[in-house]
Amino acid sequence: MIIVLKSGVSDPEVADICQRVRDLGYQPHTIRGEVKTVIAAVGEERGQPDLRLLEALETVEAVMPVQQPFKLASRETRGEPTEIGINGVTVGGGRVPVMAGPCSVESEAQVLEVAEAVKAAGASILRGGAYKPRTSPYAFQGLKEQGLRYLAEARKRTGLPVVTEVLETESVELVAEYADILQIGARNVQNFTLLRRVGETGKPVLLKRGMATSIQEFLLSAEYVLSAGNRQVMLCERGIRTFETSTRFTLDLNAVPVLKKLSHLPVVVDPSHGTGHWDLVAPMAKAAVACGADALIIEVHPRPAEALSDGPQSLKPSRFAQLVRELRPVAEAVGRTL
Amino acid sequence: MIIVLKSGVSDPEVADICQRVRDLGYQPHTIRGEVKTVIAAVGEERGQPDLRLLEALETVEAVMPVQQPFKLASRETRGEPTEIGINGVTVGGGRVPVMAGPCSVESEAQVLEVAEAVKAAGASILRGGAYKPRTSPYAFQGLKEQGLRYLAEARKRTGLPVVTEVLETESVELVAEYADILQIGARNVQNFTLLRRVGETGKPVLLKRGMATSIQEFLLSAEYVLSAGNRQVMLCERGIRTFETSTRFTLDLNAVPVLKKLSHLPVVVDPSHGTGHWDLVAPMAKAAVACGADALIIEVHPRPAEALSDGPQSLKPSRFAQLVRELRPVAEAVGRTL
Amino acid sequence: MIIVLKSGVSDPEVADICQRVRDLGYQPHTIRGEVKTVIAAVGEERGQPDLRLLEALETVEAVMPVQQPFKLASRETRGEPTEIGINGVTVGGGRVPVMAGPCSVESEAQVLEVAEAVKAAGASILRGGAYKPRTSPYAFQGLKEQGLRYLAEARKRTGLPVVTEVLETESVELVAEYADILQIGARNVQNFTLLRRVGETGKPVLLKRGMATSIQEFLLSAEYVLSAGNRQVMLCERGIRTFETSTRFTLDLNAVPVLKKLSHLPVVVDPSHGTGHWDLVAPMAKAAVACGADALIIEVHPRPAEALSDGPQSLKPSRFAQLVRELRPVAEAVGRTL
Amino acid sequence: MIIVLKSGVSDPEVADICQRVRDLGYQPHTIRGEVKTVIAAVGEERGQPDLRLLEALETVEAVMPVQQPFKLASRETRGEPTEIGINGVTVGGGRVPVMAGPCSVESEAQVLEVAEAVKAAGASILRGGAYKPRTSPYAFQGLKEQGLRYLAEARKRTGLPVVTEVLETESVELVAEYADILQIGARNVQNFTLLRRVGETGKPVLLKRGMATSIQEFLLSAEYVLSAGNRQVMLCERGIRTFETSTRFTLDLNAVPVLKKLSHLPVVVDPSHGTGHWDLVAPMAKAAVACGADALIIEVHPRPAEALSDGPQSLKPSRFAQLVRELRPVAEAVGRTL
User: Fold this and answer.
1) Closest approach of chain B CAs to the CA of A7, in angstroms?
2) pLDDT tens figures, C260-316
3) Do B55 and A311 meet the contact criterion of CB atoms below 8 Å apart?
4) Helix orientation angle between D255-262 and D215-227, rounded to the nearest 10 degrees
5) Nearest CA of chain B to the CA of D269: how many Å?
C-alpha cells in the first residue's frame, strides 16, 4: 500500500502513521517529496487488515493499494488457464462451446423443443431458468422444481448438460441435484452467502457479473467461491449499466481480455442479456469470440413474441442455427474451434 | 402501452399485432401518422402480461409503457405520506430522526460507547451491522448473533431502537427477534426471495437502493415487500455508481424529491456510504434534509482509524454531535424539526 | 409524439392540450385508458417545434417521441450504405481499411518512420495529431502547422492519405488544405459551430463519439455535418465513460451494430483510445471487425515509452504488423477483406 | 508518482526504469515488497513530463500520481476562498446570489419581462442565452447578437449584471462586449482553445462541468482559464450523465463540498439543467445551498409551455419568487444570507 499524506504534516504525525502501519503488520518506508510525503507499507496485503482505514486519519490524503486483492482467482497464483469439464464438454480450452436455450422453462414441450433445436444447431450445453429473478413481483417467477425436472428430462433426451440459475441458499441443494452447472445471476453477484454455498457444492459455477460490478469486485466474488474450495468457476460478462439506452445494458467486451489478463478462469459472454435485442445478438456473439471468449450463452425460444420472459432478446431456432454456422469461421480465425 | 411499428409495415401485419394485443387482454387503437404507425394498447398494465414482449416481432420497433409498473408503492394508490412508528420514533412525519452508530458491531464495549454517545448527541435510532456483506472473503464478516445480542443490550441501556442488516433468508427470523428495523443492503436490493421474507415478518424495513438500481426498479423492489403484506417500508438512498471517483459512490439526492413525487413511502439518506469520506458527511446530510429527506442514517465510530470496516467514512462522536447541532436549523428552515 | 397525461386531468384540460398540439402543427388523437389518458400527436416531428415542451404543463406527465430526430443520417432516408472514397481507399465497402500512426506528430523523422512502418504492415491511411486537445494546460499541445507539413510530407513519400484532428473553427481551412480526412475529436462532438464548418468544407469527416454521447445525440451531431451539405461522414466509436476503471474508457462495440441499423454511414472503431492499454488493442480490434466495423484507427509509435502523448495505448510497429496479419482471417470470417 | 512494477521484473529492468525516471527529471526510490516492487519518483509533477507514459513499458503494471495535476486552481496554492465581484454582486462570499432568467432570449419583451420579475423576486444576476448549443440542427439556435442587445437593454433597465454563454472563439470578443460574465457551457468544458480565449478577456467566467467530466478534469479546465491570467473563474455543477433516467441528468451535489475542499474557486449550482424538471428545481436548489454552494443559476420563463428551449425545466416567475423566499432561511441555517 502507498499512503499519501496531506501537505504540511509534521514529523511526529508521520511517526504516528508509521507506528500504526507497523501495528497493522506492515513495514513502513517514508519517502519525502518536494510537495508530498508518502509512506510505502511493505507486506502481504491479502488476507490482512486493510490499510485503507488509515484514510480515516486527518493527516492522510489517500491510501492506494499496489496489489490486486484477489489471490486464488489471480494469474499470479496460477499461470495456466483453468479448464472446466462438464460431462464431456470443456470450457476454457481450444473449443468454444455454446450454451443455448430459453430464458425461462415454460413447459416440458417448450424446453424439449428448444433443446432438440439447439443441439441440432450445434449447442453443447442447455440453458434454461426454473427460478427467475424478476424486477416486478407481478411477473412470471418460474416453474421452480417442476422446471428443474423438465430440464433433466431434456438432458436425458439430448445428452446436453444443463446450466440453470440458483436464486437462494435454500434451494442450492435441490438445484445442484438437477443441474450440471449452477448459475449465479447478475443480481446475486455480491450475495456472499450464496457464493459460499455454491462453492461448497463443488459443482461448476457460472458467475455472472453484476450490472455495476467492477472487474476487481467481480474477481473478489469469484474468490468467495474459490476460497470455499471450488475451483470450477466460469466468469460471465452480461452487460453493465451505463447512460446509453439504445441497448438494454452495455455489453462490456473489454472485460474479456482484461479478465483473461488478470485471471486464469474461463470467460463466458452473454450477448442476449448484454444487448437486450435479438438483432444485436449475432454481431456481438462474433465479437465475443474474436476477442477471446471461452464460451457463449444465448437465449433461444421457438416463439419469442409469446415468451414468458425476455422474448425481445431471444433468437428463433433457425436464426440461432445460422449464427452457429457464422461463428465457426470466426472461431477459426482466432485459432479455436466452435 | 404504446407500440411503435417499423416503417413500411403492411395492413395484415398491423392486424396481426392488434390481434396479439387483444389476446393479451388489451384493447388496441391504431393511429397512422405520416411516418410511423403506432398502436395504443388500453388496459390495466400492472399485474398483466408485459406487452414489451411484442418487441420480439420484426414488425415492432419499440414498446413504450405509459404507466409506472408499481402499484402499492405509488402515490396514485395512496395519496398521503406513510408514517412508520418504531418504538415511539416516527419516520415520515414532521420530525427528521437521525439513525447513527458504527458500521460494524465490533465488541460490546464499542457498541455501548457509541450508543451512549449518539443518544447524547441527539440520535433517535441506533444502527450497527452484525452480519456484514464484504466485497472480499478475507475481510471481517461481522460478529453475527453475538453482535445482535450486543445491539439488544445497547437498546436496553439507551432506549434507542435498533436497525441492523439482514443478509440472507436463513437469518431473517433470528435478526427479526433482535432488531426493530430490518435493513436490506444495497447488494440485496434485488434479492427477491429475501425481500418477500422480510415482507412476511411485518417488521419495519429499511430498503437500500442498489448502486445501479433505477428509481423504477427500486420502487419495484419495495413492491415485493409491500405485496407480501408489509406496509412499513423506508426507501434509503445511499449512492449510485457513476464515472466519478472523487467520491466512493455518487450520493443521488435527486432521488429524494423524485421518490417523494412517485411514492408515499418515507425516504432516508445515508451520506456515509453515499460519499465514503467523513468530511463530506456533514454537507451532504444538510443537503439531504434541505431537499426533503425524512430521516438520516450516519456512521459513527469512536476511533475511525481502528474500525474493522468503513473507518474512512465514519464520524467521531464529537463531530457527529456538532453535525446534529448544525442540522437543527436546516430542518427548521424547511418546516421540520430534528 | 405520445403525450401521457397525469391521472385525474379534466376534459377542459385535455382540450387545452389538444389545442396546443394543433397550434404547434400536429393533429391530436386522444385515447382514454383505464388509468391514463394519452394524446397521440400526428405529424412530421423532424425540423418542427419540439412537443416535449408540453412537459412544462402541470397536466402532462411525459412526452415520448416515436420518431428518431435525425433525418439525413437515417436508414429510413437512405437505405444503402454510404461509401466514402479517399484517394483510392474506400470506407464503407467490402474492404476494412486500417488507419494507423502516432497519437501526436512529434517530429518529421518520427512521423516518416511510423508512416513507412504502418504502410509496410498493411495500413491504408495515416493518422497523426498536429493539434492536440490535452486535459492539462501543462501538457504537450502539438506541433500545429509544422505538424501538418510533416504529415503532408509523409503522405508524399508513402502515398497514404492523412487523417488529422481539427480543434477549432479558425484552423478548419488550414487543416483542410493538408488533410484528406478531418477528424472531430470526442471533446468536440457537440461543438456545433465546428461541425457546421467542417460540413462546409466538403472534405470527408471522421466524427468521434463523445465519452457521454448517446447514440441518438451522436447521429444528431452527424446531422449537423450532413445538413451543411457534406455527405462524407464516418462515425467513430472510441469508448464511453462508465464506472469501470480497469480500462481508460469502455469501448462500446454494441454501438457498431446499433449505428449500422439506424444509419447508412460507415462506422470506424478506435480500440486505442477505447481501452487505453496497448495489450487490449489487438483483441478489441478483432472484435470490432467481427461485429461489423467498416474501418479501424490504431495508434502506433516506434518507442511508446517516449511518446509525447498516449504512449501506454500505442503499439510498436512490430506488434501492429502482427495485428494486421491476425485481423485478415477475422475480416474474411465475416465476409470482408482487410 | 508511484510506479508499480510487474511481478518477476529483473534487477536490470528495475535499473532501466530508474534511469528513465531520472531522464525525465525525477529522483527514483525503489521499494521492494514481498510481492511487488514499486518505484517512488520524487519531484514536482505539475508542468513536467507525465510519468504515466512509463505504463507503455512491459515491465510496468501501473503508474499512480500522488499529486493533483492542477496548480492555480488548488487550495494548496491559495488557501483563502476566491471572491469574484461583478458590478457590486460578490460570488464566493457570505451572500449566495441567485442568477435567473430564461434559457433562451426569445424577444426583447420576453427578456425584459423576465428580468423585471426575477429582480423583484430577489435575483441579483440575469441569465439568458443568445447563442444556443442545440443537440439537433433543426432546433432554435438563438438570436445571436440581437439577443445580446436585448440582454444589455434588460441590464440597463434593471441594473442586473448579465451572464450569457459564449459558444465559439470567433464570438468571444463580441459576447465580452455585452456580458458581465462569460458562460462556458457543459459541451465546451474541454474546448481548450475557447477556454484560453475567455481567459485572455479577463472577464469573470462561469465554467460549467461537462456531463462526463471528472472533478479532476473540471479543475484542469479551470486551470486553462487561470493560466491564461484570468483568476475570476466560477465552477458550475449542472448534472452528470448516469444510468438514471428519471432525471434529465444527475445533479451531483457531492461535487460542491469536493470542489470546495480541493479548490479556492467559488461553486455555482444549476438545478434546472441538473434535473430537467421544474418541480425538482426547488428541493435541489435548497440542497445546493445547504451543502455550501456559493451561488445558484435557475431558469425562469413566463410561459414555460411556449419556451423555445428547456421549457420543462423552467420555473414560472411566481414559483421562482416563492423559491427565493424559501431559500432565505436555508441560507441562514448554514450561516449565510441570500
Assistant:
1) 17
2) 999 999 999 999 999 999 999 999 999 999 999 999 999 999 999 988 888 899 999
3) yes
4) 50
5) 13
**Number of neighbours of residue A58 by Cβ within 10 angstroms:** 12
User: For chain B, which ranges sit under pLDDT 70?
Assistant: 45-49
Nearest residue to C42 (alpha-carbon basis) of D90, A292, B33, D96: B33
What percent helix, strand, coil does chain C show, rounded to 5? 40, 20, 40
Residues of D in contact with C167 (CB under 8 A): 192-193
A-chain residues near D62 (CB < 8 A)? 66
Given the DSSP bridges, would you call strands A205-208 and C89-91 parallel, antiparallel or unpaired? unpaired
% pLDDT > 70, chain A = 99
**Phi, psi angle pair for A235, to nearest 5°:** -95, 130
The three-point CA angle A93-A98-A102 to 5° equals 150
Give per-residue pLDDT as tens, A272-291: 999 999 999 999 999 999 99
In chain D, which residues have their Cβ closer than 8 Å to the Cβ of C217?
135
Quote the CA–CA distance of B86 and B159 in Å, as a whole number: 12
Q: Is it the case that residue A45 has pLDDT exceeding 90?
A: no
Instruction: Please say whether the beta carbons of D68 and D216 come within 8 A.
Output: yes
B partners (3+ CB pairs within 8 A) are A, C, D
Q: How many CA atoms lie within 13 A of B61 on its CB side?
A: 19
State whether D254 and B247 contact (CB < 8 Å).
yes
State the nearest Cα–Cα gap between D331 and chain B, in angstroms: 9
Q: Which residues of A touch D (CB under 8 A)?
A: 2, 4, 7, 29, 31-36, 38, 40, 42-45, 62, 64, 66-67, 76, 241-243, 245
Whether A51 shows a pLDDT value over 90: the answer reads: no
Question: What residues in A contact D31, CB-CB < 8 Å?
Answer: 29, 31, 40, 42
The string of pLDDT tens digits covering residues A146-184 is 999 999 999 999 999 999 999 999 999 999 999 999 999
Q: Do D66 and A7 touch (CB under 8 A)?
A: no
pLDDT in tens, B91-119: 999 999 999 999 999 999 999 999 999 99
C294/C291 Cα distance (integer angstroms): 10
Decide the pairing of beta strands D60-64 and D2-5.
antiparallel
pLDDT mean over A119-138: 95
- Could you tell me which chain D residue has the CA closest to the CA of A250? D243
Residue D48's pLDDT band, with cuts at 50, 70 and 90, is low
Q: Band of the pLDDT at D49, cuts 50, 70, 90?
A: low
**Cell numbers standing for residue A215:** 472487474
Q: What is the pLDDT of residues C208-251, one digit of tens each?
A: 999 999 999 999 999 999 999 999 999 999 999 999 999 999 99
Is beta strand D27-32 parallel, antiparallel or unpaired with respect to D37-42?
Answer: antiparallel
B66-94: pLDDT as tens digits: 888 899 999 988 999 999 999 999 999 99
A23, A184, A192, A211, best to mutate vs chain B, most B CBs in 10 Å: A192
Specify the residue for cell string 455495476: A212
Q: Which three cell numbers stand for residue A117?
A: 433445436
- From chain B, the residues in CB contact with C29 under 8 A are 31
How far is the C-alpha of A15 from the C-alpha of A9, rounded, in Å?
10
Residue B303's closest CA among A306, C314, A23? Answer: A23
Contacts of D134 in chain C (CB under 8 A): 192
What ipTM, to 2 d.p.? 0.95
Smallest CA-to-CA distance from C166 within C202, C138, C206 is with C206
Residue C312 to residue D210, Cβ atoms within 8 A: no
C136–D54: do the CB atoms touch at under 8 Å?
A: no
Query: In angstroms, what separates the C-alpha of D86 from chain C's closest C-alpha?
Result: 27
> In which band, very low, low, confident or very high, does the pLDDT at A8 lie, cut at 50, 70 and 90?
confident
